[in-house]
Design a protein that fits this description.
This protein is mainly alpha-helical and 182 residues long. 60% of the residues lie in helices and 7% in strands.
Length: 182
C-alpha cells in the first residue's frame, strides 16, 4: 500500500492552543493546591490520555480483521522475527511484557483460531516454539498494512517536523524510564 502524506497547516506561532482535558485537571489542582507545582502532571497526563485514545483507535482498526490489540501484537512479533516466523514462548512474553500465565492463555486463543502453532524446539527437546501458520502470516500481512495507514491517519494533524521532534523527545523519555541497558 502506497502512503500519501497530506500537508497539515501549522498553527500560528503565537496562537494560544485550545485547552484540553489535561488543562482542566491542572487548573483544578492549581485552584485547590496553589502551593503545589503540578507542572509534571501536564506531559504525563497528556501522554496517558493520548495512549488511551490511540489504543481505542488502534483497536477499531484491528476489528476489521477480527483482531484485538494483543492478538495483533503477538502475530506482529512473530512476523517481525523473520522467516520461519518462530519464537520461544519466553521470548514472546518477554518482548510483549506479559506474564507466562497470560502468554499460555493467549497462545491457546491464537492456536484455536489457526493463526499460530506450537512446534518442537530442535535445540531443546523439553520445550516448544510458537510459529505463525500460513493463515496467521496472511492475516498479519494484511492487517499491518491497514495498521500503518491507521497510524499515519492518527498522526496526520501534526506537521512532519513536529512529529520528528516528538519522536526524538519520546525516545529520550523512554530511555530514561527503561533505565540503563543490561
Amino acid at each position: 500500500m502506497k502512503s500519501r502524506q497530506t500537508p497539515v497547516p501549522s498553527p500560528a506561532p503565537n496562537a494560544s492552543p485550545t485547552p484540553d482535558a489535561v488543562d482542566a485537571i491542572l487548573e483544578q489542582w492549581r485552584r485547590e493546591r496553589p502551593d503545589l507545582d503540578v507542572s509534571p502532571m501536564a506531559p504525563i497526563g497528556r501522554i496517558k490520555r493520548c495512549a488511551a485514545l490511540l489504543e481505542q483507535q488502534l483497536e477499531s482498526g484491528f476489528s476489521e480483521f477480527g483482531l484485538s490489540l494483543w492478538e495483533f501484537d503477538m502475530l506482529a512479533a512473530l512476523r517481525r522475527s523473520g522467516a520461519p516466523y518462530c519464537l520461544s514462548p519466553t521470548a514472546l512474553f518477554s518482548m510483549l511484557m506479559v506474564t507466562s500465565g497470560t502468554m499460555t492463555h493467549r497462545l491457546k486463543r491464537l492456536e484455536s483460531c489457526g493463526w499460530v502453532q506450537r512446534i518442537p524446539n530442535a535445540q531443546d527437546a523439553r520445550s516448544s516454539l510458537v510459529q505463525l501458520t500460513d493463515k496467521g502470516l496472511a492475516l498479519i500481512d494484511r492487517a499491518v498494512e491497514v495498521h500503518v495507514e491507521n497510524e499515519r491517519s492518527m498522526l496526520s494533524a501534526m506537521p512532519a517536523d513536529a512529529l520528528e521532534q516528538l519522536d526524538a523527545q519520546l525516545a529520550v523519555l523512554l530511555r530514561a524510564l527503561e533505565g540503563p541497558a543490561t
